[in-house]
Write a structure and sequence with these properties.
221 residues, mainly alpha
Length: 221
């Protein structure tokens, strides 16, 4: 009996699974051209976590370009975009508005991540806050925005998120480390102007034993 040829290369075999050692496709970033674009990229939706993470990665690349002077010719435009974005994220009452805090979309994302144990999202958001503060610390014209972010971190509901990250199990260094960097950046910002405020909240936020162990995880970027 003659063999019947399969049409169109059909096969009964299931598709091959990728080998574990095959490199994954590199995560993409988006070049930031406008402040409104940045706002859209960092908008939080519960059904849009992947899109937000893409936005965080793009924001990270944008901040690193400013921080490390990677494009001197374009730096003035980047600073203008950053200022416009930060100004658009300010609450009407900078000191008392806890319902709509500074950079509220990112805080909402971090809160959602904490409630749903989405560690990779919590880690990404805390890391971008730390990097933003580090960037602003080197820009004298952005002192007010940096201080506003520091004071926002010190709000009770946000300190709880930082504490949760610092108290994560030891094997979750990727969660602990960015929270530790964020606490460090707040403490040292503008020559330590808010260090006293950090100290006042030591019992609420920074357990001495936990902090001592976590300091061993601190890495320079």
């Amino acid at each position: 009996m003659s063999k019947r040829f399969r049409e169109d290369g059909a096969t009964d075999r299931p598709p091959k699974r990728p080998r574990p050692d095959q490199p994954r496709q590199a995560a993409t970033t988006e070049d930031i051209q406008f402040a409104r674009q940045l706002s859209q990229l960092l908008t939080f939706r519960q059904d849009g976590i992947d899109q937000l993470l893409h936005g965080v990665r793009s924001f990270k690349a944008f901040l690193e370009s400013i921080l490390y002077h990677r494009d001197e010719e374009d730096r003035a435009r980047q600073l203008s975009i950053l200022r416009e974005y930060l100004d658009s994220e300010k609450p009407a009452d900078e000191h008392n508005d806890t319902e709509r805090p500074f950079l509220g979309q990112l805080w909402q994302a971090w809160s959602f991540a904490a409630q749903n144990n989405t560690d990779h999202l919590a880690s990404s958001v805390s890391a971008i806050f730390a990097l933003l503060l580090r960037t602003l610390a080197g820009l004298l014209d952005f002192r007010d925005q940096g201080l506003l972010l520091c004071r926002t971190v010190l709000q009770h509901q946000h300190l709880r998120l930082v504490k949760r990250g610092l108290d994560a199990p030891k094997h979750k260094e990727f969660v602990i480390s960015p929270c530790l960097r964020l606490a460090t950046e707040v403490t040292s910002f503008d020559g330590g102007v808010l260090a006293r405020e950090i100290y006042k909240r030591r019992e609420q936020t920074f357990d001495v034993a936990t902090l001592r162990w976590n300091l061993g995880l601190l890495r320079t970027e």
